[in-house]
Amino acid sequence: MAGIRLKYANCTDAHDTLQCLRAAPFDTLNSAFSSLSFLPVIDGTLVPEYTSVALSKGLFVKVPLLIGTNTDEGKIFAGKGVNTTEELAGYIEQQPYIRTTNNETVQDLLEAYPQPGSNSTSGQSDDTLPLSATYGAQFLRTARYTGDLGATHFEDVSFVFNNVLGQGMPSNAFDVQPATREEIYKQLGDLMSRKWMSFAATHSPNHHQVKSFQTVWPAYNLKTPQNMVLDGNTTSFVENDNWRAKALELIIEGSLDFSR
């Protein structure tokens, strides 16, 4: 990693590389650092174990959690320009969090994330989305895989805080057309913010006092796993947690291969 910084700053052959870095222009250093990924390091104290190992040992703080995901959130940080299955395999192998390039693991992932439209329940909302050459023919497939490995933070913040005016935001999530959709969004923002406050106060999201919404958000359990779907296009509802089950189980089983 240090070598990459030296290369970007043209300091590789300098007699005093530290002084060369200190004298390098800001834009040069900024480009050098922006090109790198900084991942958590297991030090035995602050980060004692991989999260999957800690979870299996019960080494975590036992407090109620309200967690979730957003539809299509992998599109925000998925790699672009992937056009073939072979290129997708290379994309998977080159990610900084991958600890192994086992061909069998990569092949299993490719099968678990088939190309959109291949008669599979891929769990994505817009399989027919036309893509430009910039995104790549395999962009939706890449986004599904990438989105299942992490979370796109902040996407739901406008609704969680019921920020109907879009204050402090680059754009207002509630500024949509037609007016009927805008009203549904506002109702969802009110419901979500109340659910979050209810959970913070009572450890249950069901004391929101929105009389028009009576669906109970069930506590998660492994025997009958269910999630609450908070939808801005239809009525929110509870669904079984079987979303891309095969692919997610593959990632869970190989957690250490993904630095998890």
From TrEMBL:
Residues 10-88 form the Carboxylesterase type B domain. Keywords: Hydrolase. GO terms for biological process: antibiotic biosynthetic process; monocarboxylic acid biosynthetic process. InterPro entries: AB_hydrolase_fold, AChE-related_enzymes, CarbesteraseB. Coiled coil: none annotated. It holds the Pfam family COesterase. It comes from the Eukaryota. Signal peptide: none annotated. One of its GO terms (molecular function) is carboxylic ester hydrolase activity. PANTHER family: ACETYLCHOLINESTERASE, CARBOXYLIC ESTER HYDROLASE. Belongs to the type-B carboxylesterase/lipase family. This is Carboxylesterase type B domain-containing protein. It comes from Penicillium decumbens.
